[in-house]
Structures are given as structure tokens and as C-alpha cells.
Design a protein that fits this description.
Layout: E1 4-7, H1 32-40, E2 46-52, H2 59-64, H3 71-88, E3 94-99, E4 105-110, H4 112-119, E5 124-129, E6 132-135, H5 143-147, H6 149-153, E7 163-168, E8 188-193, H7 207-216, E9 226-231, E10 247-248, H8 249-261, H9 263-266, E11 268-273, E12 275-276, H10 288-291, H11 293-298
Parallel strand pairs: 1-11, 7-9, 7-11, 8-9
Antiparallel strand pairs: 2-4, 2-5, 3-4, 6-10, 6-12
């Protein structure tokens, strides 16, 4: 089963720096966006995502030459390489944030001296700024009417047998149209809260619930599809009454990692991210694949 990715954000995906062990000068391993951030805040620690040269094939290579049987061993190899970097970095230089068994990357917070140490390591392919994304499209829409999917539904294409992983502000799984009141239920069959690091993906803003309704609600595009709710925006209160305005790239990547790791358990065939955002500076930017190497690696 091939995993499809629906991503409503302006991010082009191609891997800019091959994790092949080729030698690069330390500064060349840092993306221009990261270097600008360091220049704006000299001396301050910065959240980063690190490409790890762990010897495993790239996502692009695996797409051309699939090897699903070898993935369990590759996951162990990736995690071992990430843990080695974390263990060998001084605690004042680097604080580990996340490991990713499905990707050759890790996330954390680095000091200026930590950035230099990381960039000088032969097992580090690239270092990027851990940026943020925002929810896109604030109001719900009737997907069936917009794209005439109701006509497709009447021909028997209703999403039955498919599962959509929705990375967003969470999903209100308690409402009847999404299988409520319990979790998991017949519609929202699983999920997690990546940003708050717990197992409850209850919506803290409403955007994710709207997206779920458009995708797989009773009047959605695929009304018989099931949903896995992956929350990547943190709650500001314990009651889930309000979300943070932005989600960290490292959390979004953690959500993608969760979906890939659990695709077999839930039958996930689609990942939806209705997220995006502009660069937080007025500088000229190059190709998106150079600015977003982490997403290039993941996709």
C-alpha cells in the first residue's frame, strides 16, 4: 500500500544535502535561514532540526527501490545514530528534543557553541531552523459541493477501507458526526497528542475538527473513511480551551513519524496537513527544498 500525502501548504519537497557522508565545511551544513536566525539573536540558543548521516537510504531512494522488509532494522539504525549524537554532545551545548525512527533526523535546542560542534561532526548532514506553521483556511467548507465529490460517492467511492491521518489542532472526537462521545470510536479510531506529549488528541481550537469534517464527516469528501487524530498544536490550558498559534516543525515531523510508524496498525493511506506559513523575515529565499530540508527528508 502506497502512502499518499495531502499537504495544503506551500512547501516544495526535494532533499538538498545528501546524507552520503560527503565532506562539507561546517558552515555549509547550516541552512541560510538558520544562519540568519543566529545572526539576529547572537549568543541565544536556537531550536534546530538535524539531518543525521546514519548510513540508511534516503526516502527518495526507498521510493525508487522499496524495501519494506528492511525498515525495522533501519529504524533501529536511525535511532542508534541519533542517540549517539545526543550522548556525545555536552549538555550545555545541546538539549535533545525528539528522535525520529522513520527519518534520518533529530530535533533539539543548541547553543552557539553547540551549533559549531554539531556542524563539525561527520555524522551530521545538515542543520536547519526548527520553524513553525499555522492552520490554513479558518472556516469549514462543504467539500462535497466544492468538488462535486457527492457524485463520486454515489458511484461507490466513499473512502470505505481508507484511514486519513489528520495532523492539526486535534479533533473533537466527542461530537456525534465524528463518532462520539468516546475515544477511540468508530470514526476516530486512534491518535495521539504530539505537542503536549500525551495520548489525548482532543481539539483545542476547532480547526482540526473542521478539517476532519471536510475530509471524512457525513458530508465530507470521503464520508466512510476513518480518521487518526494527530495533534501537533499544544494546548494553552489543561481544559483544551485554547491552542498555541503555531506548531513547531519538529512536532509536525513527529506527527508524520507517528503516522508512518503506525500506518499498519490503523491502515493509514493518507496524511493531511492543512498547515502553512510565511517566512518570518524579509530576506530573499531560494528553493523551498533548501529552506526546508527536514520536510524534504520526511516526504
Amino acid at each position: 500500500m502506497r502512502l499518499k500525502l495531502t499537504f495544503f501548504a506551500t512547501i516544495a519537497i526535494a532533499f538538498p544535502l545528501a546524507a552520503s557522508g560527503q565532506s562539507l565545511p561546517p558552515a555549509a551544513r547550516m541552512t541560510p535561514r538558520l544562519l540568519r536566525e543566529v545572526d539576529r539573536n547572537p549568543g541565544a540558543p536556537v531550536r534546530v532540526i538535524i539531518g543525521v548521516a546514519d548510513g540508511t537510504p534516503t526516502a527518495r531512494a526507498l521510493r525508487i527501490h522499496p524495501d519494506p522488509e528492511g525498515e525495522p532494522a533501519r529504524r533501529l539504525q536511525r535511532i542508534a545514530a541519533q542517540q549517539q549524537i545526543a550522548s556525545e554532545m555536552a549538555s550545555e551545548d545541546f538539549e535533545t528534543g525528539r528522535f525520529y525512527e522513520s527519518f534520518s533526523m533529530m530535533a533539539g535546542r543548541a547553543s552557539p557553541s553547540g551549533l559549531k560542534a554539531l556542524a563539525a561532526r561527520p555524522d551530521v548532514a545538515w542543520i536547519a531552523l526548527d520553524g513553525t506553521k499555522r492552520p490554513m483556511q479558518a472556516s469549514p467548507q462543504n467539500g462535497q459541493l466544492l468538488i462535486n465529490s457527492d457524485q463520486t460517492n454515489t458511484k461507490g467511492f466513499t473512502g470505505a477501507g481508507e484511514t486519513i491521518a489528520i495532523l492539526d489542532t486535534g479533533i473533537d472526537y466527542a461530537i456525534p458526526s465524528l463518532g462520539g462521545p468516546s475515544f477511540p470510536n468508530s470514526k476516530v479510531i486512534g491518535g495521539t497528542d504530539i505537542s503536549d506529549r500525551d495520548s489525548d488528541p482532543m481539539d483545542c481550537e476547532g480547526h482540526g475538527t473542521d478539517v476532519a469534517g471536510v475530509a471524512a464527516g457525513p458530508t465530507g469528501v470521503a464520508p466512510d473513511a476513518r480518521i487518526v487524530a494527530i495533534k501537533v498544536f499544544s494546548s494553552k490550558t489543561s481544559s483544551n480551551a485554547q491552542c498555541s498559534d503555531e506548531a513547531q516543525d519538529s512536532d509536525i515531523l513527529g506527527g508524520i513519524n507517528y503516522a508512518i510508524t503506525n500506518r499498519g496498525a490503523f491502515g493509514i493511506s493518507v496524511i493531511n496537513l492543512s498547515l502553512g506559513g510565511a517566512f518570518q523575515d524579509d530576506m530573499a529565499h531560494g528553493y523551498c527544498d533548501s529552506d526546508e530540508p527536514a520536510y524534504a527528508d520526511a516526504f
